[in-house]
Amino acid sequence: MPRVTLGQWTQKDEQFVRNLKAELGRKGKNCKNLMRRTGRSQGAIYKRYHQPGTTTVDELRIFIQEAGLSEDDVLDFLFKDRG
């Protein structure tokens, strides 16, 4: 099987999703909260988890608010050379 090397963006995407899910869990929130706030379906929310690059700015703002992510978490996700 060929070896796959993940790019830095992919690694940052995965770390951001892990941070997002962890913070949502700590706050007692889940996919249903995000569905209600964004007006998106469950499938759309899961797509955002698996392909964070498809997230709109409005959705990202809601995710950040719901999870209470720190500025550092958000900046690490947005800028390649941070973190």
Describe it for me?
- With 83 residues, the protein is mainly alpha-helical.
- It has a domain of 49 residues.
- Helix content is 66%, strand content 0%.
- The chain has 5 helices and no strands.
- Helix 1 packs antiparallel against helix 5 and helix 2 packs across helix 4.
- The longest helix is centred in the first third of the chain and has 19 residues.
- It is globular and about 35 Å long.
- The N and C termini lie far apart (31 Å).
List the helices and strands and how they pair.
Layout: H1 8-26, H2 31-38, H3 42-50, H4 57-67, H5 71-78
Helix and strand pattern: HHHHH
- Termini separation comes to 31 Å
Total helical segments: 5
- β-sheet strand percentage: under 5%
The overall strand count is 0
General shape: globular
Computed over alpha carbons, the radius of gyration is 13 Å
Structural class: mainly alpha
Integer average pLDDT: 85
The main β sheet shows up as: none
Spans where pLDDT lies below 50 across 5 or more residues = none
State the helical fraction.
Answer: 55-70%
Could you give a quick summary of the protein structure above?
With 83 residues, this protein is an all-alpha fold. It has helices spanning 8-26, 31-38, 42-50, 57-67, 71-78.
Task: Name a few traits of the molecule.
single chain, 83 residues, mainly alpha, 66% helix, globular
